[in-house]
């Protein structure tokens, strides 16, 4: 088993046949239970990894082939990657929120991934078809703008040279795109939630300061 690239919150290792995800930080057991339940219920509805086993601290998943979306962005395929992300997000938001174990019956709300972006999408590098969307531990019942804005935030923050390709994402998603002030407010809300998460894990640690800086940068962005 070797560490997998692009893991941030948890310790994730794999051997080409399975992926083992050990949850760390605040609410680790709750996040594991949420992701385990969702992955089980989403089988056959959305492209997600199959669950092989679970313990109180670790989730074992079947390996799914595919290239992480951020690697394909860096390879210059932003338009295709973001169009696939938009199509996938439309499917996620169209999935009955009853797949959630809590908060599933709030009127006007949808299934929100909670950390949606090319960083959590695996794609076939030839067809750009999504093979899996991963990391469902922050999923909840909420507003579509949360995922729309966060995918945009990922591109603006980590791949700013491809900001121009975000139109492909929004067009593939379809429907009315919330105005920029609403999207930026959703980005700032998520940045603050992650700052609080890190502060619970390591009070006033470097990750807390990093999210403070990211929030300041986000507040200064223009449409």
- The radius of gyration computed from the alpha-carbon positions, rounded to a whole number of angstroms, is 17 Å
Distance between the termini: 44 Å
Could you describe the largest sheet, including whether it forms a barrel? 5 strands, antiparallel
On the 0-100 scale, what is the average pLDDT? 93
Task: Give the spatial strand order of the biggest sheet.
Answer: 1-2-3-5-4
In which range does the helix fraction lie? 40-55%
Give the number of helices. Answer: 7
Strand content: 15-25%
Question: Care to describe what's here?
Answer:
This protein is an alpha+beta fold and 223 residues long. It is built from seven helices and ten strands. It has a five-stranded antiparallel sheet, with helices on one face. The protein has a three-stranded antiparallel sheet with strand order 6-8-9. It has a two-stranded antiparallel sheet with strand order 7-10. β8 (121-123) and β9 form a beta hairpin. The model has no long low-confidence stretch (mean pLDDT 93).
């Amino acid at each position: 088993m070797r560490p997998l690239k692009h893991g941030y919150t948890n310790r994730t290792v794999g051997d080409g046949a399975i992926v083992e995800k050990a949850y760390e930080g605040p609410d680790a057991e709750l996040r594991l239970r949420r992701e385990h339940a969702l992955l089980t219920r989403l089988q056959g509805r959305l492209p997600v990894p199959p669950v092989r086993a679970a313990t109180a601290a670790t989730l074992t998943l079947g390996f799914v082939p595919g290239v992480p979306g951020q690697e394909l962005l860096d390879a210059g395929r932003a338009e295709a990657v973001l169009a696939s992300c938009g199509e996938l997000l439309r499917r996620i938001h169209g999935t009955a929120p009853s797949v959630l174990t809590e908060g599933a019956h709030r009127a006007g709300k949808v299934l929100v991934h909670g950390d949606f972006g090319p960083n959590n999408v695996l794609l076939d590098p030839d067809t750009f078809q999504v093979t899996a969307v991963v990391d469902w531990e922050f999923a909840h019942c909420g507003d579509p703008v949360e995922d729309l804005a966060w995918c945009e935030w990922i591109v603006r923050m980590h791949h700013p040279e491809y900001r121009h390709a975000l139109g492909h994402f929004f067009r593939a998603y379809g429907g009315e795109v919330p105005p920029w002030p609403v999207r930026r407010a959703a980005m700032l809300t998520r940045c603050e939630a992650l700052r609080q998460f890190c502060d619970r894990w390591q009070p006033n640690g470097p990750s807390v300061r990093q999210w403070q800086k990211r929030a300041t940068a986000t507040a200064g962005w223009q449409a």
